[in-house]
Design goal:
- The complex is a heterodimer.
- By secondary structure, chain A is α/β, with parallel strands linked by helices.
- Chain A has 3 domains: 178 residues, Immunoglobulins (Immunoglobulin-like), CATH 2.60.40; 47 residues, no CATH class; 164 residues, von Willebrand factor, type A domain (Rossmann fold), CATH 3.40.50.
- Helix content of chain A is 31%, strand content 28%.
- In chain A, the strands form 4 sheets. In chain A, strands 9, 12, 13, 14, 15, 16 and 17 form a 7-stranded mixed sheet that branches.
- In chain A, helix 2 runs antiparallel to helix 3 and helix 8 runs antiparallel to helix 9.
- The longest helix of chain A is centred in the N-terminal third of the chain and has 21 residues.
- Chain A starts with a helix and ends in a 10-residue tail after the last helix.
- Chain B is 50% helix and 16% strand.
- In chain B, strands 10-14-17-11-5-23-22 form a 7-stranded antiparallel sheet.
- Chain B starts with 9 loop residues before the first helix and ends with a helix.
- Classes of the chains: A alpha/beta, B alpha+beta.
- Chains A and B meet through helix 2, helix 3, strand 1, strand 3 and strand 4 of A and helix 9, helix 10 and helix 11 of B.
Amino acid sequence: MNASLRLRLFRRAHLLSGWMQRHSTGTGNFVSVGLLVSGVLGFDTTRNMSYQIFCLLAVLGGVALAGTRLRRLHCVCQRHLPALATVDQPLHYRISVSNPTVTDLRDLSLVDELLVAYPDREQLQRYTREEDATDNWFDRRVGFPRWVRLLRLLTGADDARIEAFDLAARQSRDLELRLLPLRRGTLHFSRIHLGDREPLGLWRRELTCEAPASLLVLPRRYPVPALRLSGGRQHHPGGISLASAVGETSEFHSLRDYRPGDPLRRIHWRSWAHTGAPVVKTYEEEFFVRHALLLDTYSEIAADACFEAAVSTAASVVCGVQDQESLLDLLFIENTVYCYTSGRHVSDELAMLEVLANVQATANNDFSQLADYVLGHSHGLSSVICVLLSWDASRRELVRSLRARGVNVLVLMLHAASLPPPATDSTFLGPLADAPQAFYWINAGDPASGLARLGAGSGVRP
Amino acid sequence: MNPRPLPPGLLASGLLLWGWSMDLLPVAILMAIIVEAARWLPWRVAMTTTDYSRVSDLTSVILAAVSIVLFVKYLHQGLFAAVTWMPAVGFLLLCSQLYSEGQSIPLAALIYRLRRQRAPQDLRWPEFVDVRPAYFFTTLVAASIALPRVNWFYPVASVLLLVLLWRYRARGYTPALWLVAVALSVATAYAGEIGLNRFSIYLQDYATQWFMQDWRQRNLTQAATFIGRIGRLKTSNRIIMRIEAPNRQSLLLRQAVFNHYQESFWHGSGNTAEVRQPDMGTTIWRLQAAPAVAGNRLTVHTFLSDDVDVLALPAGSYEIDASPDLAIYDNAYGNVTVAGPAGPFSYSVRYGGDVVRDAPPGVLDMWLSAEQRAMVQPRVDELGLQGQPPARVVQLLQGDFQNNFRYTLQQRAPAVVDDALRYFLYQGKAGHCEYFATTGVMLLRAAGLPARYVTGYAMTEYDADNGFFIVRNSHAHAWISVYFAGRWHEVDFTPSQWVAAEEASRGWLTGVYDVFANAWFGIHRWWAQRAENWTYYLAGAAVLLLLGYVLRDWRRQAWRAVWRRVSDPRPPPPAMAASPFDDIVSELQRSGAPRYQGETLRQWLQRLQRSGSIETGELLSLLEMHYRYRFAAPATKNEAALRQGVAAWYARQADDKRRVRS
């Protein structure tokens, strides 16, 4: 079947399914399935009497549908979201529903709808998951379950819903909803649907409230043991422009008399005005620890589990090495090289996580741009933590160059859950052959266990 | 998860109904006792998801095995039979729910792919399901298939279904409203099921007959019959011919002759057609030599299809007068086919005298299979046909069919084709023309007379208003051609009341249909004889233009209405509500106590406390309430207390400011 036609049919089927889920109750679903079964079995009315059940169910459904016109809802809904959420961690939030009418409402239902992101053909082609292997032949052939999985992933979560609650007249109540974020990034909430059952309890009349909102979902983090990142403090001429005065970073040290040769821009003009003699400011040069966290973003697969695990690993490392005495540069490449710095009161851990929440994979495997940038700034770096998705020549060369410049390197190498990592002998390790403890395998299916080994001696443990 | 309890006795009622229908009442009673005993017995089994999965797998395997066995035995009927056994097959699964501690079944146990799914749980689907309503419905459906057609099934099934639905009704309405809706539904569905049944039968018959009639009209080698079909034989009243007969004499117009019957089909061997040429310079086709005395004349108005059509001709036809652009074929049995441009078609035919064109009898005209001979021989013996003169044989059979048999379009015999004729001949003694003609041919052959099966139309309905005979689809008829005294004679064993019965079976819509059909026929005749009258064309074009304009304007209005509805401005979205504590945060930030990026509220307040800028003891307790309000479970929230606390804090701040000012 034509691919675009198939995607259109999938989309229609999804819309119909969503409509049915919102408008039909559990009893309604029962009646619908019964209608289908009795209709098929009773198609030939001369054979059996299943068509009588079909007729009864069909008329009940029709009368119930007409019954939805009996009452119209007049309610107000307000959504209260927390600031942040985390992937795979249930998110609890509330929606206030108020009933300004004089009618007691019973058996209401509520669906909080997310803005659906329909996958396009290219995304579907690039999307492969381990779950695909569990599909049967027909599902693999048609591809609808795979499409639904990708749709859920792109949308970010399933619609939160709550069934069968009551709302007294002129009252409002808070409903607690549960939602499970399936991916990092921004979740876009669109509408709140309030459903009211008709007398037979088969269908719902719907009230839709437009309530657009968004929520940032942070990548999943795992516990990381205290990292013993070796590497001394490096000289940072001029300090950090946004740093406050903490520890050895007091950029302005004192005033002294002018000596010939002092640069004019260090003259403290106000003191000169007070004393009548030139006075200059003195500064203390800054020496502190600066780490870099290099995130490999090259992936050809849409919603790649390995890449997601790499982001989670980076997020875990960000949370693990953060202290206010050192700087951490987060480096990655999308279309260009990005560098975000935190530590010593420059930005913070949360800001780094927000950045990581929005990192996207890139299909451009030009690692040299990122390598050049890192090597260009290697003079100020104490150590580099590389979260890598592959271990090819360009990446090995970067590691080799960094080590040659005296920068300590820790490599966290991701491998797919379904594939065991290759043997990590000295040939494989290449530039890290003499320091195998700086190389760690991280299983994309279980990053926690890999991260738990950090700092526990040699990292080369498949 | 404990599902909503079903009404007591509902499952047992479904099982008893199923047992009654399957003649397994003792088993069903036992099953019902087991099912209902779960309400009182305190014992429950601790089952894991794996246990449920095993039970589900076992049920699936048994169902598949039963389906395969029944399918192999009864082909597609076996699938229906498999449905009737489903309550027995699914009983173990039902018991695993009723007697387990969980009282419900994990969805993953029923859907195999969910067991292997490692993705995060899909919140759209329930984790557990209640199989009891589905099981109950299965008992109803199984009973509906297993039971013979009985009048009490609909009320019983309705009551049972409504008892189930009562449990799941919406609670926000009065029960009276539910009862009204249900009563309305049941009454409408009762009328609907009767109508649906009739409509379904009508559709099936219409489709079958349309196919078969169409086939019969164009096929000289094979004719399908409705022998063995149960139910009412619905015939279409579509007018297919209008015949001008100056002598107004009723006739049988034959189309095809067949000589070999097998499994409800008549076959015509040797019906090879040869092309006939018209007389030079005329439009007259001569089928055979004209009799000494000039015969009668019929003019037939009908429609030609774009395929080869079989002409309906009276016996003894010898001359056809039709349009010149036709190809006419005939064969040794006197069947005439015609090919020409599709559309209205008229032809005249001359017939009469002792003209017999049919080929002399052959071996097949005397042939009977062993089963057929065994079937009719007792009747032949009973009537004493053997050894009688041919004319006497025909007379005896005519009398027998006329006096002891009845014409009907309704068959109640079992739908087994092979037994249908036997049932007709010895038990039912009622049927339509195909039964009479087919058994008549067999009886004549068993009595030693060559006989053939003839199909065609009976020309019996005279339309005095228009001055022609009307031949409808329902006038399709079958009779016999029997050979004795050196020639073929046409005899019709169908009791003569069949014409009256056919007329009585017409609905009141037939008259309405006739009016339109005659008007359409008139238009065709007018078109065929049309003159160059431009006034009519202009008037027709003007009417069409006016109609088009009105239609277009109406559509625009409708679109405007739809557009208005869609483009109605939507109400603005409601503003987001926040925790009351958020106001304090904003107030403090405005008053010069900024909160650093990444600083939690608690850290911020503690920093302010350390710096001595404000007293935060009260604020920290409010912060606790704020956290609970935002993050804790609903039961532990106390929004009112938080609002009071915030209001108190504001009041205190206002007092302080007043004091400072004073």
